[in-house]
């Protein structure tokens, strides 16, 4: 088989993608810089995440899963800020120009990009230990800036969908535990960024974050930025049917990462408005507690009995 050089590789796997053209991209792959135009009265939202083999995903993860997840985690950051995704750049470090790996990686990367009308507009390709950095760009209306410090005393705290499935799936993989229901592995390997949810919710929330390091850790970021505390009711934490059967379900739901659901706070007097919006938009979200003035995160059950969670989510250092 003929070996690919860097430029042939870029051309074959990344540049030749006529389908994903956006009209706001004035120059894309092939020029020294990408040139894009932000719509009038909007601001640019930018986020970057790196995935390193053996750190952010197990070494045996398939290129299809890596291609999906590398983009998904970045779109999730845009979602948390209520941004509409538009463009991405990709810095790819590969041990070798493996054609099958590249085919599978790009197939799933671009499938997700297409789903959210995102165009790959540039990047960098180097040789070394496998690592994938994606920078995502999106936009938000000028007056819709969200921030982690927006939580107010009395705000209700919500999370989308269910929590803990991805962490439980990782635990099963690491400990060779066989699970009949394969859906949880989808939750780990093919997380769906909550882009539409984020855009709909930006109209109404006081603060929002995506759960990448575990609920307690990420809600903790909102609370410390906002100088608030919270009371969480463990009986309200939404769990999938698979997790409901697990003894350690709450540990995964509270402390394990990789769920990429949204956690947000809303003023109590907007509860009805929020519920209407959730229904209209077909968004599943559950109220799990409320923001308090006292700077402490209290986790308890419906009877007020304190729950002692284990470790506080994933720390890189
Ligand atoms: P330069 O040397 O000018 O930085 P490169 O040779 O690194 O350019 O890349 C050539 C073109 O291909 C640039 O437009 C760059 O953005 C794009 N590119 C390189 N690698 C990738 C990649 N992995 N994905 C998308 N675009 C890429
Ligand atoms: Mg250049």
Verbal overview:
This protein is of the alpha+beta class. The protein is 32% helix and 25% strand. The chain is built from ten helices and twelve strands. The chain has helices at residues 6-15, 63-80, 99-115, 165-174, 183-189, 195-201, 215-226, 241-244, 249-255, 271-281; strands spanning 25-27, 35-36, 42-52, 84-94, 119-127, 131-141, 156-160, 207-210, 229-233, 262-266, 285-292, 297-300. It has a six-stranded mixed sheet with strand order 8-10-7-11-9-12, with helices on both faces. Helix 3 links the parallel strand 4 and strand 5 (119-127). Helix 2 packs parallel to helix 3 (99-115), helix 2 packs parallel to helix 6 and helix 4 (165-174) packs across helix 5. The longest helix is centred in the N-terminal third of the chain and has 18 residues, at 63-80. 42% of the residues are buried. The model has no long low-confidence stretch (mean pLDDT 93). It binds adenosine-5'-diphosphate and magnesium ion. Residues 10, 14, 29-32, 90, 92, 120, 122-125 line the site of adenosine-5'-diphosphate (ADP).
């Amino acid at each position: 088989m003929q070996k690919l050089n860097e430029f042939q590789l870029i051309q074959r796997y990344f540049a030749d993608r006529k389908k994903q053209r956006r009209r706001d991209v004035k120059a894309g792959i092939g020029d020294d810089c990408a040139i894009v135009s932000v719509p009038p009265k909007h601001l640019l939202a930018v986020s970057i995440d790196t995935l390193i083999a053996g750190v952010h995903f197990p070494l045996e993860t398939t290129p299809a899963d890596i291609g999906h997840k590398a983009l998904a985690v970045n779109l999730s950051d845009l979602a948390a800020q209520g941004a509409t995704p538009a463009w991405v750049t990709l810095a790819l470090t590969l041990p070798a120009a493996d054609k099958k790996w590249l085919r599978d990686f790009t197939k799933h990367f671009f499938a997700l990009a297409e789903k959210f009308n995102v165009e790959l507009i540039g990047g960098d390709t180097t040789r070394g230990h496998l690592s994938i950095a994606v920078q995502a760009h999106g936009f938000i209306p000028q007056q819709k800036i969200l921030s982690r410090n927006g939580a107010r005393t009395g705000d209700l705290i919500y999370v989308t969908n269910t929590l803990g499935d991805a962490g439980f799936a990782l635990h099963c993989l690491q400990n060779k535990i066989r699970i009949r229901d394969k859906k949880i592995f989808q939750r780990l390997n093919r997380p769906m960024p909550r882009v539409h949810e984020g855009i709909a919710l930006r109209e109404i929330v006081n603060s929002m974050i995506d759960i990448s390091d575990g609920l307690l850790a990420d809600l903790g970021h909102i609370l410390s930025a906002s100088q608030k505390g919270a009371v969480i009711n463990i009986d309200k934490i939404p769990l999938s049917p698979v997790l409901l059967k697990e003894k350690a379900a709450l540990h995964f739901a509270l402390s394990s990462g990789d769920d990429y659901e949204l956690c947000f706070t809303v003023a109590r007097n907007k509860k009805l408005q929020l519920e209407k919006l959730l229904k209209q938009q077909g968004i599943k979200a559950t109220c799990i507690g409320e923001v308090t003035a006292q700077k402490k995160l209290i986790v308890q059950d419906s009877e007020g009995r304190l729950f002692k969670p284990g470790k506080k989510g994933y720390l890189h250092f």
